[in-house]
Amino acid sequence: MEKSELVLQPDGSVYHLALFPHEIADTIILVGDPERSDWVSSFFDKIEVSRRNREIISYTGYYKNKRISVVSTGMGTDNIDIVVNELDALANIDLEKREVKREHKSLNLIRIGTSGALHNKIDINNVVISEMALGMDGLLHYYKHDSSIRETDLEKAVLQKVNWPDTLPNPYIVSGDQGLFNKLNSDQFHKGITVTASGFYAPQGRVLRLPLAYPELINQFENFEYQGHILANFEMETSALFGLAKLMGHRACTLCVAIANRVTKDFSEDYSQAIKNLALHVLDKMTE
After folding, report:
1. Looking at residue 12, what is its pLDDT?
2. What gap in Å lies between CA 81 and CA 69, rounded to an integer?
3. Helix, strand, or coil here: 42?
4. What is the pLDDT of residues 264-275, one digit of tens each?
5. DSSP states along 161-208
6. Which fold has domain 21-286?
7. pLDDT in tens, 100-136
8. Residue closest to 80 by CA, chosen among 149, 10, 17, 5
9. CA-to-CA distance for 166 and 245, rounded, in angstroms?
10. Helices (H), the chain
11. Alpha-carbon distance 89 to 270, whole Å?
């Protein structure tokens, strides 16, 4: 791999994360907000690695004797593309030789985030666990892949039931890891397909000064149902996480607090405790 393809720091660490292979655990919690790395790691019993580079803040330590990492990604699928590729490089590429390792390592990649609910039955501060993700961003289309990694029947149903504009990238739907889903799920959580948008405002139907090209999309998302599957919530990262994890042989799961409801127009005044409760739930479940 040439220097322009596998980019490293002068000290040999991977470029954006600024981490070495031995500095990440096999279970990694991904958070969008860099400050969340700080408070997730505050639950650790011991911290052995602390690293900050740009908006990426990483910790590796121990929670109940299990080694866990937490890494902030920033917002958007473009950032997920960077973080997941570099985590995979740390796990599966010999950085000194610039060669893929013979033995593949599979990571647990668990996103804890915030989202906007697409149904009035999902109250603010409730948790949504993603069965699948619908990508509006188009990122997965840049990677060569077999359509078998995607939920093509659901993709066809979306194109049939939603007036999908020709000017947008074709939607892709990828499921998360069933084992992690079963391990992290709770009777108190809502579940469904998470819609990953390419922005916070117009791509999620928000209007400030600029009018929407497709104002009907949120209503169509709310009313979508196919074989018991619903479009449950909006956020900006999960489709890329699920797609890249599938291609690279990693396990991925996303759990988000609904801090807004796009149907009722409610917004949580304080969701910090709900996020912390969710982080502790994930940590406890991953150490059982």
Report:
1. 97
2. 18
3. coil
4. 999 999 999 999
5. HS---TTSPPPEEEE--HHHHHHH--TTSEEEEEEE-S-SSGGGT--S
6. Rossmann fold (3.40.50)
7. 999 999 999 999 999 999 999 999 999 999 999 999 9
8. 17
9. 28
10. 34-41, 77-92, 152-161, 178-184, 217-222, 238-248, 272-286
11. 37
- Say whether 114 sits in a helix, a strand or coil: strand
Are the C-beta atoms of 130 and 176 separated by less than 8 Å?
yes
61: closest CA among 84, 75, 45, 85? 45
CA–CA gap between residue 113 and residue 254 (Å, rounded): 8
Report long-range pairs for 158-166 (Cβ below 8 Å, ≥24 apart): 158/134, 158/224, 158/226, 161/220, 161/224, 161/226, 162/217, 162/220, 162/221, 162/224, 163/214, 163/216, 163/217, 163/220, 165/213, 165/214
DSSP string covering 251-283, please?
EEEEEEEEEEETTT--B-S--HHHHHHHHHHHH
CA-based nearest residue to 59, from 33, 79, 41: 41
Cα gap 155→150, rounded to integer Å? 8
Q: Which amino acid is at 84?
A: V
Q: Given the DSSP bridges, would you call strands 66-72 and 56-63 parallel, antiparallel or unpaired? A: antiparallel
Task: Please tell me the distance from the alpha carbon of residue 78 to that of residue 135, in angstroms, as a whole number.
Answer: 12
Distance, CA of 251 to CA of 143 (rounded, Å): 18
**Average pLDDT of the residues in 59-77:** 97
**Confidence at 45, pLDDT banded by 50, 70, 90:** very high
User: pLDDT tens digit string along 143-190?
Assistant: 999 999 999 999 999 999 999 999 999 999 999 999 999 999 999 999
Residue 68 Ramachandran class (φ > 0 left, ψ -120 to 50 alpha, else beta): beta
